[in-house]
């Protein structure tokens, strides 16, 4: 059909496409929509449903019923109209006037579908909605029917306050279709595509059920059936397109896993060797065998899918002094379990220390987990959070769910939740600071030490306002982090110096050698024996302030140097019982000026 003599209609009104699949599970809604069009008073239906519930598909289903009886179906493109140089209300008036003229000339009954109808209220302070409202009361007299659609949250935010507009429409709720209906739709998709699917393609039993389950779990921002349709469509596309690369795919779990991994970064196979994971975690986080053992024990449950599916995969409270590897272990878990350190969502809870920040936390938390549902969710320094912010986390830990301000529920069922704190670090002074030295313990001794330490931390937290009982009871595991003993500090410093050496070479092509005394100086000289102060952060800070800065100055002053030695001038006094001020200091220079007697 042409609108050649109606320029605004020709530009912004397009025929509604036919539905390319059967409309399953919406028979009652199609009837209600159709009956509304023939109402004597309110003949303009308004579909309310979340994105993906099939609002457009429903109108297309009605079109299939009414098109043989002379009804024409069109879609009004509000998104394009709002970008026009003319005001939206002026364009809406022209649309209405030209539709009336068209009816007078042709006597054709036009049904105009207005999707995203909240834009009428959102743009130009609602003047477009006022222009539309004037015609709704008697639009059927002109053979003209408007069918609107938007989400419930947007309707409540933009439309509901205008009672006059609301009363000129009949609202039709469009909830998500059932699991069985979605599976029927998927089955019908495959049937309709059989002629295009290569012969010999295998269809796995229960595939449709898996698609629905996984999309419900990982694609919470969309609704059924759209999200399942999109996933199956991508799987069919891989099956059909594989031959151009001499590949072959089936409609099975492997194909589904690849589609979900490439589209949203989720690995549904979640297949990893926990013994290898434990070994890798111990390599990344030095001398924290006790904490890693606690974490891995819990990951065995999640790996076997024996965890409660209505709660997060696991929840941990990392307790211990500052700078001993709590945040590093969270990053390491994201890397080895979810494939990348990018799969960590971090919240610094010092930013949510006042009661007024709780809604900001809700907004950020739901938004970021909706975008990255498969992640380590890290709440750093949980003790700094306000009681209101802590209370907000209770449904997350208990039911793996949190509702945003628009009423949309976000699932945390595929998160590993980590909270860090140093509130109970004084516990370690009561049981001996050498609990970090567990290298020679048997597995049973390690488990016994873990249980004893965990119970001591729990007793220490009893009655603490920061950790109310309802929070502690929702945490799966407390992971105790030991103070850094001397061998741990040495190893951290050694790793940091080697990384520095590599960084200097990679960026400046300059070779750096460190004398062994540099390691002693950084770890022991003028450092505190207080485990709450002598930690990985202080070591890295000393390397930055006393070594990196000196190397940078030397390279600036001697840009042609290809070899730098780093040593210690003066005498190390850390082994002596003296109050003498610092004697030794870092010295950087050319090899002929600084001798490295024993390198590292």
UniProtKB/TrEMBL annotation:
One of its GO terms (molecular function) is ATP hydrolysis activity. Keywords: ATP-binding, Nucleotide-binding. The keyword Cell membrane does not apply. The keyword Signal does not apply. SUPFAM superfamilies: P-loop containing nucleoside triphosphate hydrolases. InterPro entries: AAA+_ATPase (IPR003593), ATPase_AAA_core (IPR003959), ClpA/B (IPR001270), ClpA_ClpB (IPR050130), P-loop_NTPase (IPR027417). It holds the Pfam family AAA_2. One of its GO terms (biological process) is cellular response to heat. One of its GO terms (cellular component) is cytoplasm. It comes from the Bacteria. Coiled coil: none annotated. Part of a stress-induced multi-chaperone system, it is involved in the recovery of the cell from heat-induced damage, in cooperation with DnaK, DnaJ and GrpE. Acts before DnaK, in the processing of protein aggregates. Protein binding stimulates the ATPase activity; ATP hydrolysis unfolds the denatured protein aggregates, which probably helps expose new hydrophobic binding sites on the surface of ClpB-bound aggregates, contributing to the solubilization and refolding of denatured protein aggregates by DnaK. This is AAA+ ATPase domain-containing protein. The lineage of its organism: Bacteria, Bacillati, Bacillota, Bacilli, Lactobacillales.
